[in-house]
Amino acid sequence: MEDRNLAILVTHFNRRDFSRAAAQASEGLLQAEGRDEVFWLGLGEACEGFRWLLAGEADRAEQHLVAGMHNLRNFGYAYGGFQITVLLAGLRRCAEEIRLVRQQHKRVFDITLLPQLKLAEQVEESV
Questions:
Q1: Cα–Cα separations (whole angstroms), residue 89 to 49, 86, 94, 96, 107
Q2: Over the stretch 10-21, which tens digit does the pLDDT of each residue have?
Q3: Model pTM above 0.85
Q4: CA separation for the pair 4, 39 (Å, rounded)
Q5: Pick from 19, 20, 22, 31: CA 20 to 30 A from residue 55's CA?
Q6: For residue range 21-35, what is the model confidence (pLDDT) as tens digits?
């Protein structure tokens, strides 16, 4: 796995620059082999989902968020230095929030639900 691509993706994602994060995921996917391909595909879907969410396209966003969850759900707690559970929880919560807004149980989407990604090494250093 390309650690540099992953670190760049995390940086763009946490700055809410989801277009660049998605482009970085595409770059990682081009270099990936085997199981890494599914990982990068899931990251790309997640980035696209959040990009569409910020663009006000909740239906398109939900499709990508669910696809991202589907691709990433079997990777465990961390994979290749990346903390998977944080992203999975954020994807699930945002998809649920979209449904609540669509069903008019809430008026607007709570943008504070967008996750902050973490590299596993960063978590270990702070403990």
A1: 14, 5, 9, 11, 22
A2: 999 999 999 999
A3: yes
A4: 15
A5: 31
A6: 999 999 999 999 999
